[in-house]
Amino acid sequence: MDPRVTVIEFLRSQEPGTALLDDVETPGRGKEAVLFIRERSSNIRRWGPNPLIEVRAGIEVINRVGVFACMVRVQRYDTVGLYETWLNYHSESGQQTANCLPHQPELLTVWIGDSGNSERGITLKHWKQGDYREMVDLIKMLPPWSMDDFDAARDIVCSKRPTPESLWEALGNPMLLTQAQTATHRILAELNKP
Hints:
- This protein has helices at 7-12, 41-46, 94-100, 129-141, 147-160, 164-171, 175-191; strands at residues 19-26, 30-38, 52-62, 65-76, 79-87, 107-112, 118-124.
- It is an alpha+beta fold.
- The strands form 2 sheets. The protein has a 4-stranded mixed β-sheet.
- Helix 4 (129-141) packs parallel to helix 7.
- Residues 175-194 have low confidence and may be disordered.
């Protein structure tokens, strides 16, 4: 994404269902990671005042590249929205965004509607900061990678979980954090090889 373009400007040109995690300066709170979601205005209204929202995230290490996936599931009665975003730690703002996650007590979601403007903000409390600290610590141990390396690794993750629903189910598996711990030890062993 062109650094001169704001997240909201970028999302205006995207299809509904697009999500992006980025760090922004928020009034009174400083810099924090915010999840921006582009959706149809009618769907944003359909969620009503108290939708059920769940966030899942995980990291998979592919060829020494940390692929961080974050998904949001929104449900109101029989209407379900599922949104995914990927965070490349070695992208322009990836480190700043990733480093915000373990330190913020809440996650703000900003919903961009058909008008191209923010139509709703929902703050998610009960944020599992410790899980994100572990994931960020794992990524920091890996050697740097290129955008092409990240894209190739993400493609492998997507080939194993080709639908949003299959990725959602994989992120709900508590083994991911255990795998992240195991991967940490394996990565340390690989990095210490002569």
